[in-house]
Amino acid sequence: MVPREKWSDDRLDDLNKKVDDGFADTKVEMREGFARVDGDIKELRREMNARFDAANRTQLAGIFVVVAAVIGSNSF
Fold it and tell me: DSSP labels for 13-73?
């Protein structure tokens, strides 16, 4: 393929449109990708919060058991 020495205005306009269309497609793909990542992060936060809440409840229950045992073993 022999390169052209000159580009006509029409060919430059066509190239410009192809480049613009390519960037538009890339922007759409990036927005979709970021939306998926945002959704994944929100789901991860929900899961982490649920697990932290469960761990906190377990710790509190353990503390109550220990306190109840201490109070039950002491005679005031």
Answer: HHHHHHHHHHHHHHHHHHHHHHHHHHHHHHHHHHHHHHHHHHHHHHHHHHHHHHHHHHHHH
